[in-house]
Input
Amino acid sequence: MAVEPGLRPPRVWLRRAVGLGAGVATLAMLILALWVAPPDAVQGQPQRLMYLHVPAAWVAYLAFATVLVASLGYLWRRDLRWDAHAQAAAELGAGLTALTLVLGSLWGRPVWGVWWAWDPRLVSTAVLLLVYVGYLGVRGLSPDRHVNARRAAVIGVLGFVEVPIVHFSVLWWRSLHQPPTVIQPGAPPIAAPMLAALLTGVLAFTLLTGWVFLRRLDQLTARLAPAVPNRPAPAAVDALAAIPVASKTIHVKNGAPR
Amino acid sequence: MLTAPRTSALRVTVLRQGWLLLRRELAIEKASRETLVTVAPFVGVLVLLGGLAFGPRPAVFAATAPGMVWFAVLVAAVPLAPTVAIAEAADDAWDLLRAVAAPGALLAGKLAAMWLRLLVGWGLATLLVATLFGVPATTAGLAGGVVATLGVAALTVLLGTLLPATTRRPALLAVLLLPASLPALVAGTQTATTGVPAAPWLALLAVFDLLTLTVTWAVFPTLLED
Output
């Protein structure tokens, strides 16, 4: 298989395994969230949005942590594969943060009586989204990939500062938003079936996001070496098989076979 | 007979370079009146329109005045960002500065100049709010202003260096600079609000400064590679 030196072969097996796990976990989450877990005693059925809202927020944090690590990796090694990791994670993080806001708004309407409140958690989450939209906007400013990667990496490092602000905003300020339920000292004040549905939701979102991340990563890394395909087309494989062994070596010059 | 000059006289330290760059920035300011031309109209119009929008009840003025000051300062920081690199590049001076000055010195000079510009903007906004809104500045508010503008200056220098001169630049500056300055907006407002304990908010501003200065110092040499 023709693979440019330094680029990893496609992680098809890993992607399939993660995809399969995501499917199973999503199915389990739906069963637990819709049938097994009871409706909340105070909020009723709208509380079930928690099984999507909280996992989306947590996985968004995870994606932004990935952006931070990959950005530092790029600044350290100047390798565009790190930048590809950061870009894929930032796209997912921004999407999941937007999803978190939309789901929170849908949940807030029946419970709080409003679509939006000037609450520290809501405002800081919206700010977080803006920062990573800006991160993605910085990427296309230069025709030079390394210049874009360098600028984006700086924003990727700087932007992560917002993540702890968002997370701890409910503790630092008086907030309408509820404080952390699961990660807190002592036993979580949540019924066991609800906790099971929530944790399964986190697992499902993590695997689903991981699966999309790997697919996007393959797309982005493939763009790094457009002249040398990672996987030869079937016709090309047949043609290669017909060539005598002695002359099977393919010479590559300036990125294109000759 | 030629004698070798003393090494200490020839050695231009980073601090010395930074001081020279700050003097250069002040000389440019003196000649161009860039801060007055850029910041003063922004701050003046914002405070005036804010007064029309929120007034004339004194209770509403008292509640909105501290936030009005910081809103004006942050909005004025956006048009100031091009003075870091874009204006230098337009004068064919940016490449020369990068070649001659040490990155730390260039950062120090640009940061000090930006801090002074923002202090002027903040001082003007505080003065206008005190006069037009009838809400005098507090000691804690003054301390908060000095501390918070340093962090905002660091961010403005960082993003002013990072973003090139494109049509998307103003929008990206607004999207990145204003949200990143959120701690200055919130804590700066709280320190200037009567009846709110200032110490925790001043501590938060100090952390904000430390964080923004560290990140800017760490990544500035990388940004100069463009």
Notes: The mean pLDDT of chain B is 86. Residues 15-223 of chain B form one domain. The CA atoms of residues 35 and 86 of chain B lie 15 Å apart. Chain B touches chain A at residues 158, 162-164, 166, 168, 171-172, 175-176, 179-180, 182-183, 211, 215, 219, 222-223, 225-226 (CB under 8 Å).
